[in-house]
Amino acid sequence: MKKKLVLCLSIATLAIQALVLPVMATPVSAAVSSETTVEPRVKPVKKWVYKEINGKWYRRLFNVTTGEYETDWIPV
């Protein structure tokens, strides 16, 4: 009987503390930085660019997604 009483009092004390005491949590607006950006993962789009130099054809791989060349000029 004494064990049940101690258990019930302990549970009641914890429940009251959980309801009455304030929660120490960081507000959502402060926790999320506005500098953080999430970019969707996109499969890179690449295309071959062709050029004729002195009668010979050359090609170069261009990444359309990043706007940069992937390779040097390669003779075709």
What do you see in this structure?
With 76 residues, the protein is of the alpha+beta class. The chain has a domain at 44-76. The protein has helices at 2-20, 28-31; strands at 46-53, 56-63, 68-69, 74-75. Strands 1, 2, 3 and 4 form a four-stranded antiparallel beta sheet that branches. Strand 2 and strand 3 form a beta hairpin. The chain starts with a helix and ends with a strand. The model has no long low-confidence stretch (mean pLDDT 83).
Task: Count up the helices.
Answer: 2
Number of strands: 4
SS-derived structural category: alpha+beta
Q: Which percent bin holds the helix content?
A: 25-40%
Poorly predicted runs: none
Distance between the termini: 93 Å
Name the assembly state: single chain
Round the Cα radius of gyration to an integer and report it. 33 Å
* N-to-C order of helices and strands: HHEEEE
Largest sheet: 4 strands, antiparallel
What number is the mean pLDDT? 83
Brief synopsis:
By secondary structure, the protein is an alpha+beta fold.
